[in-house]
Amino acid sequence: MKNDLYPNVVNITNLPFEQQQFAQDVVQGLTKKQKTLSSKYFYDATGSKLFQKIMDLPDYYLTRAETEIFTYQKEEIISGFCSAQPFNLVDLGAGDATKTKILLRSLLQRQTNFTFVPLDISLDALQELQSNLALELPQLPVVPLAGDYFKALAQLKRESGMRQVIFFLGSNIGNFPFAEIKIFLKKLCQFLQAGDQLVIGFDLKKDPRLIRQAYDDAEGITAAFNFNLLRRINETFTGNFELNNFQHFAEYNPISGEMRSYLISTQDQEVTLQDLDFTLNLQAWEAIHTESSYKFSEAEIQVLAAEADLKTQLIFTDKNHYFADVLFSVG
Ligand code: AVI
């Protein structure tokens, strides 16, 4: 029996609530002519561990470049947003907040009046971060918020005279479909007022070979990260994706700046997701698009900012000019 709300999915209402959106997205994505799966489902416990490993890989330059920016330019970054007025430092998608902690230490040394608000979809990651901060920076005021970015931001209290400084690091902005970046920034601005600020991490356009290598690393960790999505679907919906019948493939388009990752079916095959009464037929060499990671030029960043009515205040880059953390002001 089909469900009116989710016409492509059978018996979806029998699934636990948190799996219903996942089920709908999987079936809709795999029913399209050009098949897709959303990269937002990479991050279960195994996927998050694999992403931690990716961030330490020699080929994945992004984390090193942004850490370099934070390490060597922390005082300049802090001077760009710090004020005598109290503020919330909101870390969107905080994870383990490794890079943010570099600034938090300096802010505490300066005896700044601020509250750290890590915001993450994963409650587990937030709890781990909170206990870690209690040990490492016991004097830091922390108000963690769990959930979807905008739902969690809506809960954020703004006492009178308080400013918001929002961090969105790690090139997470690059994982939105390009048309949605502008929409995301505009939506974010709805939570902000004149005087609030944003720090966004952008991966910059560079030698295409370097970019491609970062998403198809020599150790095969990114491939495992991509395959984990099929493993997660098998586990969640009693599926029979045979991982050996797929290939990880990554290609970069130097004009659009889009780094695309795929899972390619290496043979004709039929896959069943039992819990969803869903059967998928794949032809040999048919591709499932699993992730886009956009790269930007500084000019493109300026255009995006102008479209969202943000004013570019300062641009910080690493010595290789691989990555940029940009400080914007609102209003
Ligand atoms: C989380 N995000 C910014 C990473 C990226 O670079 O797009 C995810 C990732 N995918 C493959 N490697 C890393």
UniProtKB/TrEMBL annotation:
Keyword field: Methyltransferase, Transferase
GO process terms (BP): methylation
Transmembrane segments annotated in the record for this chain: none
Annotated Histidine-specific methyltransferase SAM-dependent domain residues: 22-328
Tagged with keyword Plastid: no
A GO term for molecular function: methyltransferase activity
Protein's UniProt keywords contain Zinc: no
Gene3D superfamilies per the UniProt record, alphabetical: Vaccinia Virus protein VP39
NCBIfam families (UniProt xref): egtD_ergothio
Protein name from the UniProt record: L-histidine N(Alpha)-methyltransferase
Organism name: Adhaeribacter arboris
